[in-house]
Design goal:
alpha/beta, Aspartate Aminotransferase, domain 1, Aspartate Aminotransferase, domain 2, four-stranded antiparallel β-sheet
Length: 399
């Protein structure tokens, strides 16, 4: 008898998370973290910083706890944070967002994505189009909603989609086009041409655009372009982001989604039965963060870009073909020239071979598409400079 009944079993099966005996399968993420602990390797597999965020934000959380902000906040979120999100969208992107009706605070971007997909899917004939590789929770949320996942491949080294393939994937069955920009795991930032085509296809097929923009302030070379700012997009777009990446507070799990009021109401209807609310003293702290000066956001991006340069230099010196990231936490490199045509096996050997842990890109694609990313490996650059310098040294001397 399986330990996973009903809808949860279908979700796990649809997302490729079940072992052959019906129990939950171990993931490559857990396996690689265990390898790091066992061998003392530097863990560049998991995407979280090893430094705290801005002191103003941390102190604001402490103050909120001391003031007694420790019980349930309002269902939509703390009003000051809702206002701060609205102010942020106007300040950086010129978007007008009503904090009372067009924003919800969530338990991170992952809950926002899951609640949105569950709210918008009507039945098994609905499809969700995503770019592949994709953040691993997408497939699970789509499976839980009972919809079909359709993918558009991103090819190294630029990881920009073929627009003809995108047009083929989006049909009248498409309920959601899900766009992660800047993109995890590839580090791509999509061209305006790509974003414009997403809007055109959504209008043509009456689909909703859902954007995952958690790396919005970590684009290195060009300013981030929210799809909601493009002509014709705002009325059919739900924009998702979070505090975790911007303020190095990934454990706080404070995210948000904003968009047209009728779509937000649908998402709230689902979200209230997931976490209900969360992070009461953390929400006012995130509001402080969103109101920090422009110099904070510029420095966050430039600091991370420098860290990628350190990591990339070590990878190149080791013989990897580096796919230079345009944003986000991760650098993707091709290990084929180092005997890494099977990226999963290569990553299992890497801790002993070079004292570094990474994740194969096969973890972010459907099993049928593993050959498309067979030699590609993802490394996290969101670590201290001294840690990255040591990782670069180990990689450069380990091959």
């Amino acid at each position: 008898m399986s330990v996973i009944p009903g809808a949860w079993r279908r979700t796990a099966a649809g997302a490729g998370l079940l072992a052959s005996d019906g129990t939950v399968a171990s993931t490559i993420f857990a396996e690689m973290s265990a390898a790091a602990a066992r061998t003392g390797a530097i863990n560049l597999g998991q995407g979280f910083p090893d430094e705290d965020g801005p002191s103003e934000v941390l102190e604001a959380a402490r103050d909120a706890i001391a003031r007694g902000a420790n019980q349930y906040p309002p269902g939509r979120g703390v009003p000051d944070l809702l206002s701060a999100i609205s102010e942020h969208q106007r300040r950086f992107y010129g978007l007008d967002v009503d904090p009372a009706t067009e924003v919800i605070v969530t338990a991170g971007a992952t809950e926002a994505l899951t609640a949105t997909i569950l709210a918008l899917i009507d039945g098994p004939d609905d499809e969700v189009v995503v770019f592949e590789p994709y953040y691993d929770s997408y497939a699970a949320a789509v499976a839980l909603a009972g919809a079909r996942l359709r993918t558009v491949p991103l090819r190294a080294p630029a990881f920009q989609p073929d627009l003809d393939r995108l047009a083929e994937a989006v049909t009248d069955r498409t309920r959601i086009i899900l766009v992660n920009d800047p993109h995890n795991p590839t580090g791509a930032v999509f061209d305006r041409e790509v974003l414009t085509e997403v809007v055109r296809l959504a209008e043509k097929h009456d689909a909703v655009i859902v954007t995952d923009e958690v790396y919005e302030h970590l684009a290195f070379h060009t300013p981030h372009i929210p799809i909601a700012t493009l002509p014709g997009a705002a009325e059919r777009t739900l924009t998702i982001s979070s505090a975790g990446k911007t303020f190095s507070t990934t454990g706080w799990k404070i995210g948000w989604v904003h968009g047209p009021a009728h779509l937000i109401t649908a998402v709230l209807t689902v979200k209230q039965y997931l976490t209900y609310v969360n992070g009461s003293p953390l929400q006012p702290a995130v509001a402080v963060g969103l109101r920090l000066g422009d110099e904070y956001f510029a420095e966050a991006a430039s600091t991370l870009a420098h860290k990628h340069e350190i990591l990339g230099a070590g990878l190149a010196a080791a013989g990897f073909a580096v796919c230079a990231p345009q944003g986000g936490y991760f650098t993707v490199a091709d290990a084929t020239a180092l005997g890494g045509s099977d990226a999963a096996q290569f990553c299992r050997e890497l801790p002993e071979r070079a004292g570094v842990v990474a994740i194969p890109l096969t973890a972010f694609v459907a099993e049928a598409h593993h050959d498309d990313v067979a030699g590609l490996v993802r490394f996290a650059a969101c670590k201290r400079v001294d840690v990255l310098e040591e990782a670069a040294r180990r990689l450069a001397t380990g091959f």
